[in-house]
Structure formats: structure tokens, C-alpha cells
Amino acid sequence: MKPTRTVLYLLAMLRVGLGLFFLYTSLSKVSDLAATADFMTRSRVLPEFFSMPLSCIGVSMEIVVALCLISKSMYRGASLWLVIMCGVFVVLFAQAWIRGLDLSCNCTGSLQAIENYPLEVSSRCILLAAGALLLWDAWRSEPRPWKSRPFDFSDAG
Fold first, then answer.
1. How does pLDDT run across 42-79, given as a tens digit for each residue?
2. In angstroms, rounded to a whole number, what is the distance separating the alpha carbons of residues 71 and 50?
3. Which of 42, 87, 88, 156 has the fewest C-beta atoms under 10 angstroms from its C-beta?
């Protein structure tokens, strides 16, 4: 079943909107990578010396994914990385909530204390669902890089 024009238009708006959102948040994090590294340290998932390299990699990955989503370049890979990033965000916030950690986040470009964990986790779950929808769209719409050919078993014994 082929999607209607309205569905295609809404998917394009979602793709560009998420791309712009992640581009804005990642560029605002670049100026204060120490706050992002501090969030990683206080979440106590990995040792402290991993915080700054992971922050740099995470912000770089957000920028690349955002640019790929906006331009629809490498759409499959960008949407897959979007789902992975959002899944990591959900896990980070959920484990902090379960463990009762007191965190502040530089997630949207401004440092803020996290006071309502259910809201933070659910907003990350919404981003994850939107990313999953884009991943479905990417696998549905883009042609495969390989050609499929039917197997012919007519002359088999």
C-alpha cells in the first residue's frame, strides 16, 4: 500500500523537524561540552574518564544525524543512529530515575536541574517513537543497494 501525499508530507515535516531540533540542541551543547561531560559523570554509568570523549562523540553524532535528516542524505543510516541515540537517552534517564540520582542536564542547550523524571523519560520515549517512525519510512522508501533476483527451482529434481 502506497502512502498518501499527506502522509509523505507529514513524514518529511517530522524528518526535517527532528533534524532541526537535534541540530539546534547539539550546536548549543558545543559551547559547553563540560556540562554534557558532567552529566555523563553524574549519571554514574561509566568511569569518569569516559565522560568527555563520550560527550564529544555524542554531540558530533547529533550534528551528523541532524544534517543527514535535514538533507535526507544517508537517510537509513541517519534514522538508525537517531533510534540508537534516543534509546541511549531513554536508558540514561530511566536508570537515573530508578537509582534516584539528582542530575542536571544540558540536553536542550541550557543547563537545567531534572525535577520531573517521568516527564523527561516520556519525552525521550516520544523522540524514540518518532525516530522509529522515520526508520520505518527510510526502509520502506529507499531502494535497496542490491538487486534482488528470484530463485529458479524449475529444473531442480
1. 777 778 888 888 888 988 999 999 999 999 889 999 99
2. 31
3. 156
